[in-house]
């Protein structure tokens, strides 16, 4: 009986650790897609990115969040971009605060 409790506790603990790791990695995974539109802002812009899976992300790209002017890039409509950053979802929209512009093609 004691071993059964220990094994059950170990399984629950492992499940918790794996699920937290999976959620964290998914939230920081890069987003790649085609830039559909751009809206200018005070120190950057918001690009609407559509992925190959037809997911739409509103990517907020600012000089401050990417680490300064040396890391900042202006994308154009039609560019295919890959960005990393903090993602969140509202009721019907996906957002990402870009902290790194990985590539622009």
Automatic annotation (TrEMBL):
Keywords: Signal. It comes from Flavobacterium potami. It comes from the Bacteria. Residues 1-24 form the signal peptide. This is DUF5666 domain-containing protein. The keyword Signal applies.
């Amino acid at each position: 009986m004691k071993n059964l409790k220990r094994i059950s506790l170990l399984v629950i603990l492992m499940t918790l650790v794996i699920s937290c790791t999976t959620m964290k990695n998914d939230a920081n995974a890069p987003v790649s897609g085609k830039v559909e539109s751009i809206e200018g802002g005070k120190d950057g812009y918001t690009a609407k990115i559509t992925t190959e899976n037809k997911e739409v992300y509103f990517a907020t790209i600012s000089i401050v969040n990417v680490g300064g002017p040396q890391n900042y890039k202006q994308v154009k409509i039609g560019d295919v971009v890959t960005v990393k950053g903090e993602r969140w979802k509202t009721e019907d929209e996906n957002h990402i605060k870009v902290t790194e512009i990985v590539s622009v093609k």
